[in-house]
Amino acid sequence: MKAKIAKSLLLFSFILITLYSCTLKQHKSNEQSSIEIENKIDSILSLLTLKEKVDMCHAQSKFSTKGVGRLGIPEIWMSDGPHGVRAEIQWDSWGYAEWTNDSITAFPALTCLAASFNPQLSGDYGFSVGEEARYREKDVLLGPGVNLYRTPLNGRNFEYLGEDPFLASTMVVPYIKGVQKNGVAACVKHFALNNQEHWRSSVSVEVSDRALHEMYLPAFKASVEEAKVWSIMGAYNKFRGQYTTHHKLLTNTILKGDWKFDGVVISDWSSAHSTKESALYGLDLEMGTGTDGLGTTTSNHYDHYFLANPFYKAIQNGELSEDLVDEKVRRILRLMYRTSLNKNKPAGKINSKDHHQVARNVATEGIVLLKNENNFFPIQDKQNITIAVIGENATRPMTPGGGSSELKPEFEISPLEGLKKRYKNATIIHSMGYETGPSTYDLILPATLNQDSLRIAALETAKKADIILFVGGLNKSHLQDCEGDDRQSYKLPYKQEKLIADLKNINSNLGMLLVTGNAVDTSWLSNVKGLIQTWYLGSMAGYAIADIVSGDVNPSGKLPFSFPKKLTDNSAHSFGETSYPGINHQQEYKEDILVGYRWHDTKNIDPAYPFGFGLSYTNFKLYDIESDKNGYSKNDEIIIRSKVANSGDSYGAEVIQVYIGKENSKVQRALKELKGFQKVYLKKGEEQEVSIKIDIKKLAFYNEDIADWEIETGDYFVYVGNSSKNISKKIGIRIN
Ligand code: BGC
Q1: Which tens digit of pLDDT belongs to each residue from 319-351?
Q2: N- to C-terminal Cα separation, the chain
Q3: Nearest to residue 736, comparing CAs of 626, 628, 635?
Q4: Catalytic: 258?
Q5: By the number of CB atoms within 10 A of the CB, which of 38, 408, 570, 686 ranks highest?
């Protein structure tokens, strides 16, 4: 027996040593290959002419850059991003190329991914969308977007990861790693402070260093330092008077200096404004919408870009040093070795079953059940019941529109189609209720049908039903959830409030599916018994919605942003125009670090729905919650343990959320900030202990006096719960 144990131990040690030396070898060979690549880049640089180098720093078409044929240097091909690979655009105009082989899987918009609170799923999402990009021969996928959710009016919030920097950072890292495993560069965007679409090309943001570092930069920082992202996109707006795409502080000092970013800074399309600043302040690759980089068309327009002929001339006449172009080309070549020149890159694939499954999983895990009076949901599939599905959003495709993230999926299952496929016994009837014009960029196209007739028809349909499901919300049209400008009102558009009230008068057995990427005013809430936030879900939308509505899948999504009761309850809107949208294109983020739930909590302003909130069809209990110690040193880690039990009737998942706040700080602090979370999957009657680790360094604040992070000693409170408002236990701890 003893001999057997000794033998096993020996074998075990042998395996360990082999594994260790393999990892070491792998590490060494990675190091070596990166040295080899840098050497190759040096030799390529010495062979390139100045003209060839400059030509590599700007677009040659809408989504590609020039290669150097004589040296075998490839072109770079890019595509939007971030929820799927966009259809092919024409060489030199924004029209679609009308290919027949560029239909793809549309994944749920990133707000939905954030709402899943499931980083592993984010990795699957990134890997799958990366595979699709690889198959479509893209070297750079223009996403993910991580601008912070500051105002519910921002037309592009649906593309981002919510209002909390910790959540956004935690979710973005696996996404990027997943994409890049395919030899496709993720391009995290828009760096930085592009937190509104209104005036996006001209507004100059003033924000404190502290809010910049604590709120607006963390997701970018995690993308660079943890995910090692290979490219980053500048933004349109200015920060403290300077355009962010070529910004001395943001790009040179912070991104390339402090964070040691070794990838490529790509402009947003026509976000560069000066040759000198582009050359000096970190822009590597200039892409554009129009043509001289500013939006007007001339012939050979790509030659007129700031990093094209003007750059070449400035180097030739000695105004700018050639080292500047060498540095940019070095980064561009490095990107090529990571992508197109990577010999081990896989082939990729599109529209596969597993991609559809990932899209469906993200959708079902991200959908949020907000209200469920008398267990309105799930709706049983019973004979002799009629469900009236009312609303344009029940059938309207949501992948067209919205701006650059618009997609051409192989298919998009609408909510109505999904419900009809799922409900075999119940009768499903439908009526639009209202109609809006097709979603077109920068333009509102009028509806073509008679709105009064649509409304009357919907009310007639509702009268025939036992249950009404209103599918409403926003859409991807201009001034809704769409790039280029912001929403004009916090209210539901298209007279939906009135329609909801009328439907309720017909039959109060009324539930709603809210299709948005943003919070909306919910003053109509008392008219509906059930409310589900469904986001923009892409190809598998209808199936995922039917999964949740029917109870085949138990909802487990949590809101990645707060729903204020009224717009002025949101911090960006509490200080008048100076703070949003700015006055004369100047804007000050007066709420400072108090974004989203930090504001609601600290100022005691009740939201309609808090950050982190989401119901389930089962019940969870959090108990025996404790910290591993009472006192910690600055190098410690806090371990929070909690038991979670599923005390209801069905399988489900709960997100345990840990927030921490500092008492009596020397600076203004939010009452609490999210510092850890874990999603737990439990069968009926099952319980589990979770332990969530928090590095004390995560409690640091950015001290403007020393321009660095500082961990304050003293008393803190740890809040453990299942939303930012619903706290099961508050624990006092001390940092010495
Ligand atoms: C958007 C970017 C997008 C680019 C290319 C810009 O208008 O802001 O996010 O990647 O266009 O389509």
Answers
A1: 999 999 999 999 999 999 999 999 999 999 999
A2: 51
A3: 635
A4: no
A5: 570
241 Cβ neighbours under 8 A, 6+ residues apart: 204
pLDDT digits (tens, 9 = 90+) for 227-243: 999 999 999 999 999 99
Q: Is the CB of 142 under 6 A from ligand 1?
A: yes
Residue 240 CA to ligand 1 centre (angstroms): 23
Calculate Rg over the CA atoms of the chain: 26
| pLDDT value, residue 1 | 43
Whether residue 5 is predicted with pLDDT greater than 80 in this model: the reply is no
- Is the Cβ atom of 189 under 6 angstroms away from ligand 1? yes
Whole-angstrom CA distances from 87 to 79, 291, 324, 670 are 8, 21, 34, 43
Gap between the Cα atoms of 413 and 417, Å rounded: 6
Instruction: Match 């696996």 to its residue by tokens.
Output: 174
Question: Which one is catalytic: 139, 268, 592, 601?
Answer: 268
Closest C-alpha to ligand 1, atom 11: 269
Tokens 């992202």 sit on residue: 229
Residue of the nearest CA to atom 7 in ligand 1?
Answer: 269
What is the model's pLDDT at position 9?
A: 47
- Report the atom number in ligand 1 closest to the C-alpha of 80: 10
Model confidence at 682: pLDDT above 90: yes
To the nearest 10 degrees (0 to 180), the angle between helices 415-422 and 541-550 is: 50
Q: Residue 597 C-alpha to ligand 1 middle, in angstroms?
A: 29
Pick the residue whose CA is nearest to atom 6 on ligand 1: 269
Mean pLDDT, range 362-381, rounded to an integer = 98
The angle that helices 451-463 and 496-506 make with each other, rounded to 10 degrees, is: 30
Position 33 scores a pLDDT of 82
CA angle 154, 155, 157 (to 5 degrees): 70
269 lines ligand 1 (CB under 6 A): yes
Q: Is the pTM of this model over 0.90?
A: yes
Report which protein residue has its CA nearest ligand 1's atom 8.
268
More confident residue, 92 or 500: 500
What's the average model confidence in pLDDT over 394-405?
97
**What is the DSSP secondary-structure string of 594-655?**
--THHHHHHTT---SB-TT--B-SS-EEEEEEEES-SEE-TT-EEEEEEEEEE-SSS-EEEE
The pLDDT score that the predictor gives to residue 289 is 73
Q: Which atom of ligand 1 is least distant from the CA of 236?
A: 8
| Measured distance CA(174)–CA(122) in Å, rounded | 6
Residue to mutate, 142, 158, 200, 407, ligand 1, most ligand atoms under 8 Å from C-beta: 142
Ligand 1 center from residue 269 Cα (angstroms): 6
The confidence band for 28, taking pLDDT boundaries of 50, 70 and 90, is low
Best of 77, 236, 269 for a ligand 1 pocket test (most atoms within 8 Å of beta carbon):
269
Exposed/middle/buried for residue 17 (C-beta within 10 Å: 0-12, 13-18, 19+) = exposed
Atom number in ligand 1 closest to CA 484: 7
List pLDDT tens digits, range 552-574: 999 999 999 999 999 999 999 99
CA of 245 to the centre of ligand 1 (A): 13
Region 1-11 average pLDDT: 48
